[in-house]
UniProtKB/TrEMBL annotation:
InterPro entries attached to this UniProt entry: HotDog_dom_sf (IPR029069), Thioestr_dom (IPR006683)
A GO MF term: hydrolase activity
Ranges where the record places region Disordered: 124-145
Key words, A-Z: Hydrolase
Isomerase keyword on record: no
Protein name in UniProt: Acyl-CoA thioester hydrolase
Pfam families, per database record: 4HBT (PF03061)
Thioesterase domain span: 28-102
Length: 145
């Protein structure tokens, strides 16, 4: 999904999984919300791999967009790739692709692609949480090659 002239991603993670019955309608075709579950699972993997303890409670999504390009079916294997494409002072942009692997004679196809933005919040004081810079150790762990 990233432009060929764009800088390389800050960090990337990938996972293989399978579309389960709970992910589908009665016809066995995935719900669009399944994409969010797949992507968040890979985000959790990336956060664990990079040692960003306490990330999820302080990094809500403030924007999420997806293009749905092909159906996925019950039992089909999928590959989800997630990349941090921009690490700002207090925000982070992710791009993702979800690919349906070969299934019942149909070729591998991209099922969805999109992007979303999270913002780091300071929730330590009274009142509403405020945007605050990412902790320096998180920035170091995310940008480590």
């Amino acid at each position: 999904m990233t432009d060929q002239s764009a800088p390389p991603p800050v960090a990337t993670a990938q996972a293989r999984s399978r579309i389960e019955w709970v992910d589908t309608d009665a016809a066995g075709i995935y719900h669009n919300s399944t994409v969010t579950r797949l992507v968040e699972s890979v985000e959790a993997q990336l956060v664990r791999e990079r040692g960003l303890d306490g990330y999820f409670p302080v990094a809500p999504r403030v924007r999420f967009e997806a293009d749905f390009e092909a159906p996925l079916y019950f039992g089909q294997e999928v590959t989800t790739t997630l990349s941090v494409t921009n690490l700002g002072r207090s925000s982070m942009t992710f791009e993702f692709e979800v690919w349906g692997e070969e299934f019942e004679g149909a070729p591998r196809a991209r099922a969805a692609r999109g992007r979303y933005v999270t913002v780091h919040l300071d929730r330590s004081g009274p009142g509403p949480a405020r945007s605050t810079p990412w902790p320096p150790d998180w920035v170091e762990r995310l940008t480590r090659r």
